[in-house]
């Protein structure tokens, strides 16, 4: 999904949440550690920061399943 010229001039907003994913205004392209890329054309994406997601790098809310000791 191409961005309009006005969209490319504005900075992307990323929201950091305590014990949660990074919320990023989309569309986005994410480069993984192995050099591969994944893309999403959604208006907002949740990026996993705990690495528990079965859909990594996208958050699937697996961080909520943490058991407390």
Care to give the gist of this entry?
Residues 25-69 form the Iron-binding zinc finger CDGSH type domain. The protein has 69 residues and is mainly beta. The protein has one helix at 5-9; strands at residues 14-16, 22-25, 28-31, 37-40, 44-47.
Secondary-structure topology with pairs:
Layout: H1 5-9, E1 14-16, E2 22-25, E3 28-31, E4 37-40, E5 44-47
Antiparallel strand pairs: 1-2, 2-5, 3-4
Alpha plus pi helix count: 1
The main pleated sheet reads as: 3 strands, antiparallel
Portion in helices: under 10%
Shape: globular
Category by helix and strand content: mainly beta
How far apart are the termini? 45 Å
Please provide the ordered H/E string of secondary-structure elements.
Answer: HEEEEE
Strand order of the largest sheet: 1-2-5
**Can you give the mean pLDDT?**
85
Q: Spans with pLDDT under 50 lasting ≥5 residues?
A: none
* Gyration radius over CA: 14 Å
InterPro entries: FeS-contain_CDGSH-typ (IPR018967), MitoNEET_CISD (IPR042216)
Protein name: CDGSH iron-sulfur domain-containing protein
Pfam families: zf-CDGSH
Keywords: 2Fe-2S, Iron, Iron-sulfur, Metal-binding
Report on this structure.
The protein has 69 residues and is mainly beta. The chain has one helix at 5-9; strands at residues 14-16, 22-25, 28-31, 37-40, 44-47. 7% of the residues lie in helices and 28% in strands. The strands form two sheets. The chain has a three-stranded antiparallel beta sheet with strand order 1-2-5, with no helix packed on it.
